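From the methods appendix. Each design record in this collection lists the tokenized structure first, followed by the designed amino acid sequence. Records were kept in a plain field format so they could be parsed without special tools. The example shown here is representative of the layout used throughout.

RECORD:
FOLD TOKENS (260 positions):
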């Protein structure tokens, strides 16, 4: 490269961590992100993975309004954030779409790429964040991590099986999901954002006709929703502590291979 030409700066990545869920199905009587797993909150584990991935310059955590416990978790993470990354929190809304919109409003205008991650997927390996961010940087307007579906899936109407879709074409969707910031903002300003059936941001992009690309997810990016999920997450952490499973996704950058 001639000495007078400089490589263009990579696009700024902002990351929204949605942690405003009530966690009713988990049955602990507190917001899900505050539930302890291996002695630490689910939100702490999620923020460890975010920091270890190194993809984001700005992180906005969307919290249940008035939750001082989780606000303190975010404040501690901000104090330990890697150089060049800031972390803050905002109160969430009445729905997931409203919470993501609140996170979008708090990101700096310079963020050209936005990743949206569920705090409940607390053990997501840093490599998944990196794959998603890389695909958006390469030009994909929307990217989601997916894993193959192991079970046979049935379409059921009124307690009767209507059809059996081909499992080979089915994928289970995870987070973080990545987007060109301008496209995601347009999607959240569109009419589909008012649909209560919207369960993730990729659906908003699909409603606009934006192609959604897939990259490999990871079994460890499962969502902690039920007591059984929490038990599995605690078992994974125990394997990590014993050195028999995937390494802890901490800023030390150790391996995150899936345990056998």
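DESIGN:
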């Amino acid at each position: 490269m001639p000495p007078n030409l400089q490589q263009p700066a990579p696009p700024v990545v902002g990351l929204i961590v949605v942690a405003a869920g009530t966690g009713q199905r988990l049955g602990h009587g507190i917001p899900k992100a505050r539930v302890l797993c291996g002695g630490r909150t689910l939100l702490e584990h999620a923020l460890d993975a975010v920091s270890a991935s190194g993809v984001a310059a700005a992180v906005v955590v969307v919290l249940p309004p008035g939750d001082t416990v989780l606000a303190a978790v975010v404040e501690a993470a901000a104090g330990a954030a890697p150089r060049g990354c800031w972390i803050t929190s905002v109160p969430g809304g009445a729905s997931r779409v409203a919470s993501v919109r609140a996170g979008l409003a708090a990101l700096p205008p310079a963020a050209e790429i936005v990743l949206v991650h569920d705090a409940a997927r607390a053990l997501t390996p840093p490599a998944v964040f990196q794959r998603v961010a890389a695909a958006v940087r390469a030009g994909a307007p929307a990217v989601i991590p997916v894993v193959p579906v192991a079970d046979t899936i049935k379409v059921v109407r009124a307690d009767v099986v209507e059809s059996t879709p081909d499992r080979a074409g089915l994928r289970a969707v995870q987070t973080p999901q990545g987007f060109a910031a301008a496209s995601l903002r347009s999607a959240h300003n569109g009419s589909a954002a008012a649909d209560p059936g919207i369960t993730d941001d990729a659906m908003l992009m699909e409603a606009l006709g934006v192609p959604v690309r897939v990259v490999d997810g990871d079994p460890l990016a499962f969502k902690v929703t039920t007591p059984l999920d929490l038990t599995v997450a605690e078992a994974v952490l125990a394997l990590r502590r014993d050195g028999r499973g995937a390494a802890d996704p901490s800023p030390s950058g150790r391996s995150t291979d899936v345990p056998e």
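APPENDIX NOTE: Residues 247-260 have pLDDT under 50 and may be disordered.
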